[in-house]
Amino acid sequence: QLQASGGGLVQPGGSLRLSCSASGIIFRFSDMGWYRQTPGKQRELVAALNSGGSTNYADSVKGRFTISRDNAKNTVYLQMNSLKPEDTAVYYCKLTQSWTGRDYWGQGTQVTVSS
Q: What is the pLDDT of residue 76?
């Protein structure tokens, strides 16, 4: 399973770091991603990091967000800087096992950017 944490309320321009820890799942060879969703909208990809270390970011977060992983801790992170009100959403982590095609989702963590 995946356990996401680190969300909260932050002022515009502030920073947060989200964490997502995996247990009972092969982590090291899996592809990881952070997604976000607001009411009435589809879940969208924010950042992705595959097992080889390649990253991909949504245009709206490039230069502000950084995805990283610690395979020793079975954890993926999303460092979010220069946060904007439009970053407000529930953030989800996803693990994909490319060799099975199976996806695992975390439970979501709320990020609210407001003054």
A: 96
